[in-house]
Amino acid sequence: MLAKSSTELVRQQNSALVLSALRRHGRLAHTEISDATGLASATVSAITADLERARIIEKSEQQAVSGRGRPRVLFSQRRGCGYLVTIIISSDSIQYSLVDYAGTLLDRFTEPRGEGGTATFLAAISAALTRAATRSRIDPARVLLVSISSKGLAHPAAPVLVWSPVFGAQPVDFSQALTDGWSAKVILNNETLLVAGALLEREAKRKGEGEPVLAALSLGHSIGLGIARRGGAGLPEISAPNFGHMLHMPDGGLCRCGARGCIEAYAGFYAILRTAFEVPMDTIPAKFVPIAEIDKIAAGARQGNRMAQLAFRHAGVALGNGLSRLLSLHGHMPVFITGPGTRHYDLLQAGMEEGLSQTQVVRLGGMPNLLVVPDEASLVFEGHLNLAFSIIDQDIIASRPHMQAAGE
């Protein structure tokens, strides 16, 4: 019985490797799959035959450039195998995307976040999910997974937002957004976790193996951090520590979370606004600050306004101090800076470097690479696809025990 379980586990792992290779590289021939996965030719043949029989992948032919010889047989995901819906929750809007199993974007629309409590919020998401399926004439039962991202603190094992800037400590259970007719799995992740995962994948495609470990720091209304590293068998290990609410200054400025002295209470958009206008630090923070207001403060700072410059310097020092703790715990790594706050990086950089330089790990090991990547929206969506499809692939493979044991 143990041998049978081990054989089944190997089959599932090998099948997942093949699907992962097709997702990373696109359509591949038999030999290219073998090269990408390191699997033997006979194993690849058995796996692709099983996956094709189960209607998970499909074959197509590519004629040789010269027009002579036999066409190349290429394998790819079958688009109609199932569907994914991604939901990206921002401070003022929610973006919905419908994607087929091959990763093709079929539909996308954005709605205002709206007002009201959690019940109203979940009802709006439920209606939007139905609209996404109806617009593309997709049976909701064929949606395999709904992947949600948000700023805030996500439950580690359930699709529940434990804390958020809008709802505070009032939990939001996103599984309640799926009504009758929906059987999809629901997952929730911190937005910056997805960004870190997408950056790790981008680096792997650009450099081969890529960076072994990296951090993504998101600047905006909230402050987020994601850490991604290469794990066993090349699989990523991604986490999102509650960086924005780490302590920066004891008994310091009031944060949106209700605590005092958090990094976000000095580096979030509301904190920059508060410092620039010399508002008392115990003033209850605004839930949302339009970026246009921060742009005005940034313009003033570039023109020499002392309090505007001080606001960005304080923000930079808080971020740098937080990153110095990250490096002390996890060692040196490149830090990719993303989010709408990157447009003010010229005003934050000196303070960040000042905050970083105050710790021994930086004095001895040098300043980490700080790299600005402004297209956070693309990274969030890529992160959704990478993580969601890895889960979908595993679920599809595990649900088909009748597939022949490949790779024995």
Structure description:
With 408 residues, the protein is α/β, with parallel strands linked by helices. The strands form four sheets. A five-stranded mixed β-sheet has the order 6-5-4-7-11, with helices on both faces. Strands 14-13-12-15-16 form a five-stranded mixed β-sheet, covered by helices on one side. A three-stranded antiparallel β-sheet has the order 1-3-2. The radius of gyration is 24 Å and the shape is globular. It is 42% helix and 20% strand. It is built from twelve helices and 16 strands. It has helices at residues 2-25, 30-37, 41-53, 118-135, 191-207, 264-267, 269-276, 291-302, 306-330, 345-357, 360-365, 376-398; strands at 28-29, 57-62, 72-77, 83-89, 93-100, 105-112, 143-150, 153-154, 160-163, 172-173, 185-190, 213-218, 224-230, 236-239, 335-338, 370-372. Residues 402-408 have low confidence and may be disordered. The chain folds into three domains: 2-77, Orthogonal Bundle (Arc Repressor Mutant, subunit A), CATH 1.10.10; 81-183, Nucleotidyltransferase, domain 5 (2-Layer Sandwich), CATH 3.30.420.40; 198-374, ATPase, nucleotide binding domain (Nucleotidyltransferase, domain 5, 2-Layer Sandwich).
Quick rundown:
This protein folds into 3 domains: 2-77, Arc Repressor Mutant, subunit A (Orthogonal Bundle), CATH 1.10.10.10; 81-183, ATPase, nucleotide binding domain (Nucleotidyltransferase, domain 5, 2-Layer Sandwich), CATH 3.30.420; 198-374, Nucleotidyltransferase, domain 5. Helices cover 42% and strands 20% of the residues.
